[in-house]
Amino acid sequence: MTDLKLVPRFQRFLKNAVFSFLAVLLLTSAAPGAEGRESAKYIFLFIGDGMGEAQVRAAELYSLGSGTGKISFSSMPVRGKMSTSTADGAVTDSAAAGTALASGFKTKNGILNMDPSGTKRFLTVAMLARDRGMKVGIVTSSFLNDATPAAFYAWRPSRTDWYEIGEQLAESGFDYFAGGGVTRRRGRKGNLRDVYGLAREKGYRVLGTREELAAAKPGAPIIAPGSAGALPYDMDRPKGSLSLAEYTRHGIRLLDNPEGFFLMVEGGTIDWACHRNDAAALVHDMAAFDAAVKEALAFAQTRPKETLIVVLADHETGGMSIDGTASAAQVYAVLSNQHRSSEVFDRKIEEFRRGKDRSFEKMLPVITETFGLHSLTEGELNDLRAAFAQSMKPKDQRKRDRNYLRRYGPYEPLSVTATRILGRKAGITWSSFGHSGADVPVFAQGAGSASFAGEYDNTEVGRILMYLLPSR
Ligand SMILES: [Zn+2]
Known about the structure:
Layout: H1 6-19, H2 21-29, E1 42-50, H3 53-66, E2 78-83, H4 94-103, H5 125-131, E3 135-140, H6 147-153, H7 162-171, E4 176-179, H8 195-201, E5 205-206, H9 210-215, E6 222-225, H10 244-255, E7 261-267, H11 269-275, H12 279-302, E8 307-317, E9 321-322, H13 328-335, H14 342-354, H15 360-371, H16 378-391, H17 402-408, H18 413-426, E10 428-429, E11 435-436, E12 440-446, E13 454-457, H19 458-468
Parallel strand pairs: 1-7, 1-8, 2-13, 3-4, 3-7, 4-6, 5-6
Antiparallel strand pairs: 2-12, 8-11, 8-12, 9-10
Helix pairs in contact: 1-2, 3-12, 3-13, 4-6, 4-19, 7-8, 10-12, 11-12, 13-18, 14-18, 16-18
């Protein structure tokens, strides 16, 4: 642990505390640990995957426009700004970013909790919490062996070693895994032992239904997969299925114990919506993420001096920006016209492609209805018509040149053109279909939260969290 350079970090923390009245206020309200230093017994780490400043702002405007009010974490007392570069590049993926947040060390894209050579393993804050006798939970709307959740329990030279990551989940000794399920749980060829079977041998209960999870008592570790892979976009989620907030609430109930807990909750599909440049899917997934944060805020009211809540992102996705003139009323009025994600619209396009009458005139009312695009300019109509022509070609017959990729990325041309037009009407634009190197926001409150003020690198987050774990 000596290589973690916690001492300089602590000195900086003290400096922050001296110069910031807020920090002093928080410092005095935090519970001292065994050796008189600050610590947090109940730690919540919320990761909005791909959630940059603009994503938070869009969610806030949509929420205000809908009459729901501000989102829960935008007014948290501590604000930070975090850089996200990797060991060798400016733009991170979720594996390298998750590694930095969980372990405090940089690595290369694609690698989980190992050094850039893929040989040395890093200890994570979640593993350390487990070893200190705290309970540990991992909740995500993505699949459980995806990079962000895996960064807390697994070591792999490649994030796509899904099966091996699943095996490490079963071996983790963590207490609660929920949200999405384990993908490829019998391996790529489907011929290996089921990861859930391996987990059962380690004492896990695998609970498939709402009723089973509701009836579960604290004790045996639990895996509660809401799906075979990731959860659907929240706007596509079937009625009656469990939300990210409900998985978080059950997690809190099952993990709560006198030794404390560490709970990581990821809004994983936020990233996917941004990759698709689908602003409506984004604001709904942000609302689902915000609802999960509210569960932690409710818990924090019962143990305010011992609870830390940190809300941050691993990186920004889409190079999203919001027009300075965009209003809450406008963002809500425009985006609320779209009732299903563009992924669902992809399937409509697929059906249409296989149908008999494949004219743009027949598709236009479907676009209008799906996205509420009732008034279109001549330029927008031309863009839709060009995209439609591409979308009607079989996928393997599209000429994916530079121009095509710049316009549509790897997505269905008509879907991405429609969501981009809708976004523009709301004042939202995108500059890419991938991750950006932008700094991301950090929000924090509660025990030890003053350490998250200011500007720092993503590796600091892992180190501060480890520092704040109660000692045993
Ligand atoms: Zn991504």
